[in-house]
Amino acid sequence: MIALTVNARAVKASVEPRTHLADFLRDGLNLTGTHLGCEHGVCGACTLLLDDMPARSCITYAVACDGARVTTIEGLDDDEITTELRAAFTREHALQCGYCTPGMLISARDLVLRLPEPDEHSIRIGLSGNLCRCTGYVGIVRAVRSVIDQRRRRGVLPIPDGGRRTLGPAGSGNSANASTSDIARVPTTRAETRDEDNGAMVIPDFAPEKFFKQEFTVAYPPGRVFDMLGDVTQVAACLPGASLTGVPTPERAEGMIQVKLGPISADFRGAARIERDLENWSGRIVGTGSDQRSRSSTQGEIRYRLVPTEQGAATRVELSIGYSLRGMLAQIAREGLVRDLAARLTADFARNLDLHLLGVESDGSAKRSQSLNGVLLLIDVLRTRACKVLRRVWSR
Ligand code: FES
Ligand code: FES
User: Fold this and answer.
1) Are 3 and 66 in contact (CB under 8 A)?
2) pTM flag (> 0.85)
3) What is the position in ligand 1's atom list of the atom closest to the CA of 43?
4) Which one of the ligands is nearest to 132 CA?
């Protein structure tokens, strides 16, 4: 089940995991203004606004849009800029068959919002992701230029970055219109900051944007589990895909974690600060990391609490996880998916923790096989979700 806003209307629907957003809109909601051309993210015919940013709906899973705000060409009927663009397209002969036009209008609208000048070069670059196979681009560019020109002459100023939070990619839920003061409050994770004295990565406190809880039980007393969680090397060995890049101390560790999610693989390198409270068998780990290749960055916080069960013979580990994610990965890793992946990660971690407490060391190959392979996790997540759907269908 997903809940999202489509053209200012709240929509709740059950969707197949592999249904892309364009099919969901066209087949499920009869919003056929979103056209499909290549279905490979190349032609731009399917462009719409996701959280106010142009996005390709053919390569965006509908389930990944849970909580997002979607605006299709139908939702821009009364939009001022789109109305001006429609008139300009007609006037400048900027369309023939009209197949590319909905996507073209949505990309053009974004340019009208942002470009200070009707500069042809910038417009051509801005529209380079939208292909037109029959009209050619002269009329289209002329139409967009004329709208920008008229609006600037009327004193309508461009909105830097379209009024969005600059770090929020389409579909992340973080690209909503924001005032300057909002922008100042958005946690920035773009560049790692180093301490001037010792060169160590600074781990700032932050307010996580998303939270969820996890728990698991291990058949060992809390004291033993707490000791084990204090051994950073052992913890890293239990965490799929994680490795240390320096010698850790009980308060701090630097390392990396490999994530492969769909077409994007990322090596998040970063550092974590560790706090422990022996009296309450609890602790907190705050970390920050970034991946150059996918230009994604994250900040995360894990709080844990150990609760004795079975008269103290076993331990329930309660986790509270908060995170903020920026960049390309944020575009595909929506909240539900991250939560499901974290559940798998926690289950793998719990199993490895059990083995370590039992005294079984995993060899290198075993460790590699435990790496956080998002594809495998994703398949597993989708399989689990598919089973749930089938169970629901059969129980009707
Ligand atoms: S149909 Fe989506 S980019 Fe071509
Ligand atoms: S108007 Fe026909 S493809 Fe653009």
Assistant:
1) yes
2) no
3) 4
4) 2
